[in-house]
Amino acid sequence: MKAKSQAMITLKTLIINAPEELRAALEQIKGPITLIRHIAALRPGDMTSPAASAKASMRAIARRWLALHEEIQIHEQELERMVREKAPKLMKAHGISTMTMAEVLILVGDNPERIKSEAALAKLCGICPIPAQPQAARQTACV
To answer: Per the database record, which ranges form the Transposase IS116/IS110/IS902 C-terminal domain (predicted)?
Structure first.
């Protein structure tokens, strides 16, 4: 994911610094995936101009981004399959993503009996929940 983000940052930098004619043509393309696919299909030709050099560089990075995008999707699908297999009821709960559930499963590990309460899980997750105070107690604490 980090490499994919870096590729996009580099690609945006190349677009900003591309020759005016190329930059203007690319700015007309709407949508990031459409833009990436367009750039990946560029044909730079002979390296005799700054535009050809920019096209070649952008094409290589766009192709790298597309490959990383596809690889990440494959890994995410596999992760979702594994999480659904291990915790199908939790995955049906509203607002729980695959990544969140995977992190919980990793934290709990093979020994879920060690989690005796929500506070114990919070401690494992590295968070410290602040107990809610009754309205009257909050007012006195603020005075």
So the answer is: 89-133
Q: What is the pLDDT of residues 85-96, one digit of tens each?
A: 988 887 777 777
Is residue 129 within 8 Å of residue 122, measured between CB atoms?
yes
d(CA 24, CA 29): 9
Coil, helix or strand at residue 136? helix
Confirm if 15 and 29 have CB atoms less than 8 A apart. no
39 within 8 A of 59, measured Cβ to Cβ: yes
Q: What is the pTM of this model?
A: 0.71
Residue pLDDT, tens place only, 24-44 = 999 999 999 999 999 999 999
* Cα end-to-end distance, the chain, whole Å: 48
CA distances from 137 to 105, 116, 128 (A): 37, 29, 20
